[in-house]
Amino acid sequence: MKYKQKKKALVLLSDGTIFYGKSVGREGT
User: Fold this and answer.
1) Which residue range is the domain that position 22 belongs to?
2) Comparing C-alpha atoms, which of 15, 5, 1, 2 is closest to residue 23?
3) Rg for the chain (alpha carbons), in Å?
4) How many domains does one find in the chain?
5) How confident is the model over 2-29, as pLDDT tens digits?
6) Are the CB atoms for 25 and 4 separated by under 8 Å?
7) What span, in angstroms and rounded, lies between the C-alpha atoms of 9 and 22?
8) pTM of the shown model
9) How much helix, strand and coil, in percent to the nearest 5, is found in the chain?
10) Sign (positive/negative) of CA torsion 9, 12, 29, 20?
11) pLDDT at 6
């Protein structure tokens, strides 16, 4: 994904919770 290149990662959970963090590899968690 191209979003992996960004400094900040925006993770949208199924329940609608938005989590802002560093894209260090949380995409698999």
Assistant:
1) 1-29
2) 5
3) 9
4) 1
5) 555 555 556 666 666 666 565 555 555 5
6) no
7) 5
8) 0.22
9) 25, 35, 40
10) positive
11) 52
